Each structure stands twice: as structure tokens, then as C-alpha cells.
Write the C-alpha cells for this entry.
Amino acid sequence: MKTVTFLLTGISPLIMQSDALADPLNEIAKAIKAITSKQKKTDEDHARIGQLEFRGGLYFDEKVGPHIPAKNIERMLRDAGALSKLGRKVRMGLQVVDDFSPLGYIGPRDLAGLEKARAFHDRRTVVVKTSRTVRERPIFRDWTLEVNIAYDEGVFNKEQIVQLMDAAGRYIGLGTYRPRYGRFDAKVKK
């Protein structure tokens, strides 16, 4: 296996939506359910729901702060591979080396600081089933990400990996609301 390191530089904002809230046993999901099950919600209830959704949507580690999990990057590369019939090869011949990649941006790295800084909050209406509701998610307007990719030389060559990452940045993107959001330029780090 050979390794190539990419520096991804966002050309559109990245909006996160962790899958943690899909787990009904998740503490944040329980807290949201306790509020949303109320018949009459106050403005404070709506604000608290937004705060909890923000926290629940954030990929966060106490040591490094916001990050992108390897599974998200690998899925993005599989989707990019499907554009050129390389999707199956992506599963066989490459993997993201690190479990997660820290997100580079200017701003607070701690959870409390991110929650206070409204510039990192995206609040919009979305369609859930058949109705519109408000959701609040983490957004990073200017971002970078360093990603280490290991690949099998019997399946891929370095140029193919570079083309795959380039296609992922142009057409697929990372995060939610893609491809409008989460698109990037990819450069190989020397």
C-alpha cells in the first residue's frame, strides 16, 4: 500500500450533520425528544432544540475539535468513483488512513465556543417527511482538511487517486446539502 496526502480547501461552505441523532438512545436525541413532544413550545424551547441539534450534528472530539470521519471521506470517494465506473475498485483498493481528519478553520475549537459563535450555525427550514421544519446545523464557511489515503498499487495508481479526489471535490462534496455545499479543491501535499 502506498500513501498520498491531500489538502482539501473548501470552495463552498461545509455543513455537518452527524448521524448520532438517528440513535434513539443518544442523550442529545433523548433531550430533543423531551422538548419536541410538548404540545406548546416556547421560544426558549425552540432555541434549546436548535442548540441541541447543533451539538448533535457536529462531528466533535474533545482533543481535536470538529473533524470529518473516515467513513464520510470513503463514501464520498466511492460516489466519485461511480462517476467513472471505479466505485467497486474504491471499496477494494483504497482507505482513509486516519479514523478522522481534524477540520481546519479560523474560530473556536471547543464546543462551548462554537455554540456561542453564531457564524458557525446554519438555521433553515427543511422538509421532513411531508412537512417543513426548522433545523440548526454546524456550518464552516472557510475550511481545510488534510486527508491521508492509502491505496493498493495493484488496483490504482497515484494519478487515478488524484483524479478521484478531484472529481469528489468538483461534483460530490462533503457534508450535507451537497453538492451545493461541501465542495473543495484538492491538492497533493509534498
